[in-house]
């Protein structure tokens, strides 16, 4: 399992981003039956002329009200995730290499659930629009205002990739807002490329002109249960 050495810290409902481990307990693909037609898409499945914001391993379809920011690992000087603010919610997405015929999400989901439960969070699995997802309730720190923090983990296994999303804000608890965020997730395009990559390796992301890359000097250590911890 490979961790980021340091990751950028955000205020409020920030999560720690790291690359998932491929777990062999269940390697079936997890994806909606209409994925190829309704997304999230592989780069080979969308028209070349359709406009997208090209971030390298992920392309984002522009839409009104969408704010996009890139999360940067300061020490490694690389982009590690895409943050999309929409419908009073935050969706953070990452794309990972995967085998051609098997998936990652079932195994990764089980590992996440075990680790977060061990950290004291309440974890439940729900059937979502894209397949199984994790709903995680944890106690926010005093610096984050206290109270209960609710996060949803979603993912889809595609052709030689897995696209994972973390939903925070209104969409984590409100079904109407969540539908809007799922629709946004399904418009994303994953650019896997032809280069060989080990399973679970993060697909490279880049900063295009006009897009903000979020950096902060105070870095954080990767935490396996998906929450920020002070380094």
UniProtKB/TrEMBL annotation:
Q: What is this protein called?
A: DUF3710 domain-containing protein
Provide an example Pfam family for this protein. Answer: DUF3710
Top-level lineage group:
Bacteria
Biased composition, class Basic and acidic residues, residue ranges: 1-19, 26-37
Could you tell me which species this protein originates from? Answer: Leucobacter triazinivorans
> InterPro entries under this entry?
DUF3710 (IPR022183)
Q: Where is this region: Disordered?
A: 1-43, 208-231
């Amino acid at each position: 399992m490979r961790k980021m050495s340091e990751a950028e810290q955000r205020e409020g409902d920030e999560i720690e981003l790291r690359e998932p481990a491929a777990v062999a307990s269940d390697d079936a693909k997890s994806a909606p039956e209409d994925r190829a037609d309704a997304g999230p898409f592989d780069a080979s499945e969308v028209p070349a002329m359709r406009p997208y914001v090209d971030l390298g391993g992920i392309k984002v379809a522009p839409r009104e009200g969408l704010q996009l920011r890139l999360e940067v690992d300061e020490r490694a000087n690389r982009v590690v995730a895409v943050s999309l603010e929409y419908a009073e919610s935050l969706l953070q997405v990452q794309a990972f290499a995967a085998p051609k015929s098997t998936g990652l999400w079932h195994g990764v989901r089980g590992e996440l659930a075990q680790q977060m439960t061990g950290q004291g969070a309440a974890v439940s699995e729900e059937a979502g629009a894209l397949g199984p997802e994790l709903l995680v309730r944890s106690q926010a720190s005093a610096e984050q205002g206290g109270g209960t923090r609710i996060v949803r983990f979603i993912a889809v296994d595609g052709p030689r990739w897995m696209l994972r999303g973390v939903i925070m804000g209104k969409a984590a608890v409100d079904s109407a807002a969540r539908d809007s965020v799922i629709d946004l997730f399904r418009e994303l395009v994953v650019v896997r490329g032809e280069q060989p990559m080990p399973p679970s390796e993060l697909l490279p992301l880049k900063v295009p002109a006009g897009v903000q890359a979020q950096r902060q000097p105070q870095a954080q250590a990767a935490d396996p249960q998906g929450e920020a911890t002070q380094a």
